[in-house]
Amino acid sequence: ESFGWPVPIYAHIPLIHGDDGKKLSKRHGALGVEEYRAMGYLPESLRAYLLRLGWSHGDLDIVDDATARDLFDLDGLGKSPSRLDFAKLGSVNNHFLRLAEPGRIADLILGQDAAGGDGGLAAVRNRLVAAAKELAQRATTVPELVEQAEFLTISRPFALLPGALKQLTGETRPRLEGAAQALASAKAWRHDALKDTLADYAASQGVGFGKIGPLVRAALTGGRPAPDLGLALEWLGRDESLARLNDALEQMA
What we know:
Layout (H helix, E strand, L loop, with lengths): L15 E2 L15 H6 L4 H12 L10 H7 L10 E2 L2 H14 L2 H9 L8 H19 L4 H12 L8 H6 L5 H12 L6 H14 L8 H9 L7 H8 L1 H15 L1
Parallel strand pairs: 1-2
Helix pairs in contact: 2-4, 5-6, 5-7, 6-7, 9-10, 9-13, 10-12, 11-13
C-alpha cells in the first residue's frame, strides 16, 4: 500500500491431518513427494487427490489437470482440515491407471522404456501392451501392476512355486500333455476359442474343466497370480504358451 502497488490476495488452504486427526508434519510421518512415486502413485493422481483435499467444485470427484486449470478459484477452498485417506488415493490412482495408454502401463511395469530393447524384452513388452487395460483395472499402485504381470515377464525356464508343484505331478502329466496337444492344434489363438478348446478336451476325457484348467494355469504361470486362463494364453501367445507347457512336462517326467 505504501508503494501504491496492487495488494496481493492471500488465501490459506485447509491443513491436512493424518488418520489420527493430527496435522501432518515431518515428525508426524508426512512423506515427501518422491516417496509417493516410489510407492507407485502416478503424478497426475497425486495432483488430483491433493487438489480435492482442500478444494471442491460441485459434485466433481476426480479432477484432471486440464479441468482444474479451467475451474479452480478461491471460492472452492474449504475451511475445515482434510484427512489423508490412502484408500481414496488408491481409487484415484486406479482411475488414472485405467486412463493410461497401454505403452505407458507396460513401461511402468518394466521400470523403463523397453521399446528399443533386445528381442526378448520387446516380446515381453508386447505381451504387457496387450494385457495393459485388463491389468490396470485390477491395480491401485504400480507395485500391484508389477505383481499381477509377473507371469508375463518371467523368462523360461522358471521355477514352479509350491502350489504349482503340488498340481503338476506324474499322475496329472497325461492330462497336461493332452491339453498341450489340444492347444497346439487350436486354429484361433483368442481367449474365448482357447477356453472352448480346453473345455472340449476335458469333455473328451470325461472330466470337468476343473481337472484341466488348473494344470494348464500352473504350467503357464508357475503358480503366480494370473487372470482368466483364456486371457493368460492369449496374452502369452501361441509360441510362449506351448513352450511353457513343454517345460512343465519335462519337469514332470
